[in-house]
Design a protein that fits this description.
There is one protein chain. The chain has 371 residues and is of the alpha/beta class.
């Protein structure tokens, strides 16, 4: 029987190139090394790791991170948190505001089977959360989102944060646990010294707000910040209790070229060459519906010098600088993804590869969980 037919029916143990394409692959050895590096840095600076799961959306990966030493996970959406809780993960920070009766009703149910923390930045939101959780089995853990330079959501540092902590503490359905911020404006700075300075100044607004809350009589357990684009500097700041570095486990062209991080890429898309209409043109069976190019273009491996590349809906067209008789029709090409966050959610599963062979196939259970 053709090995490709065997791989389709029972892929475990087969070489990765036997997979039908397009296929999303993660190199386990590279990902595990990235996880180990993040944890080693966190431990060296005495901070915990609560990795963001919005890139991988996969409970198996979240469990790997926790088994390695993460204290829990961070989710962007309530739907993602529900998936993780269903998989048995309890310690979940939802780094977002949960607003409105439908979502808050789901949050009450989520709190029955996990231990979520939600972010808030308004009295209006606190009022509706408190009304729902006064009838719940336990108060809801709430962290204040503080604007430390990203200028998206969040209260301003200092007195406004302390005032909101007081509002949380005065509501019996809620429990104030700390503060969350994201120094996203530092991510694209290329100069290491300038990036470190910007991260330090931004995070100092968060930690100063935490101290002010403590001085006002509020217990602060959580001071959470940080992402891949500000690593390792986010983990080095005094007063931080945890960082949310997430995408670094995969890395991608966006992180490498725009955020200037040096984590090895672990996530690729396997494609098949379907057409060679000219000696300089290659067409593969994966386009925008398979690998996004919004933040950065995916990068094909093992090709002669490339002059240009374009993604269409279902294909990618590569123009070589000079004529070449390789690759041939039917050959496989792997692309380092452009941006993991906007690539993973396009797929139903990830093939976990070790030593060039398929070790596991994981369903991306958080795919489509945008509510």
């Amino acid at each position: 029987m053709d090995t490709r037919t065997v791989a389709a029916r029972n892929p475990i143990g087969q070489v990765s190139s036997a997979l039908d394409t397009p296929a999303l692959l993660v190199d386990l050895e590279v990902m595990e090394a990235n996880i180990a590096r993040i944890l080693a840095t966190c431990r060296a600076h005495g901070v915990a790791w609560r990795p963001h799961s919005k890139a991988h959306k996969t409970p198996e990966i979240a469990k790997m991170q926790i088994a390695a030493g993460a204290i829990g996970i961070t989710c962007a959406k309530l739907g993602e948190a529900e998936v993780m809780a269903a998989a048995g993960i309890r310690d979940i920070l939802i780094a977002n505001q949960i607003v409105g009766p439908i979502k808050i009703g789901r949050l009450v149910e989520l709190a029955c089977r996990s231990d979520p923390i939600v972010c808030a930045d308004s009295i209006e939101n606190l009022t509706e959360l408190d009304a729902a959780f006064r009838r719940a089995a336990k108060p809801l853990k709430v962290a204040i989102e503080v604007n430390i330079g990203m200028n998206r959501a969040g209260v301003e540092p200092g007195a406004p944060a302390v005032a909101l902590a007081r509002e949380i503490a005065n509501r019996p359905g809620l429990r104030f646990v700390g503060l969350v911020g994201w120094e996203a404006h530092a991510t694209t700075i290329a100069d290491a010294a300038e990036k470190e300075r910007t991260v330090r100044e931004a995070v100092s607004l968060l930690t100063a707000s935490a101290r002010a809350c403590t001085e006002a009589g509020h217990r602060v357990d959580v001071v959470s910040c940080g992402g891949t684009g500000t690593f390792p500097y986010c983990a080095q700041q005094p007063g931080v209790t945890e960082v949310q570095v997430g995408g670094a486990i995969f890395s991608d062209m966006h992180y490498l070229t725009h955020y200037h991080v040096d984590f090895a890429p672990a996530l690729t898309v396997l494609t098949t060459v379907t057409s060679r209409p000219t000696p300089t043109r290659i067409v593969v069976d994966a386009g925008k519906k398979t690998m996004s190019g919004d933040a950065a273009m995916p990068s094909p491996s093992g090709l002669p010098p490339i002059a240009a590349m374009k993604l269409s809906a279902e294909h990618s067209k590569i123009e070589l600088e000079g004529p070449s008789d390789v690759p041939k029709i039917g050959d496989k090409i792997e692309f380092v993804v452009g941006y993991s966050d906007t690539t993973v959610h396009l797929h139903e599963e990830i093939a976990a590869i070790r030593g060039g062979r398929i070790e596991s196939i994981w369903r991306i259970a958080g795919r489509g969980k945008i509510k």
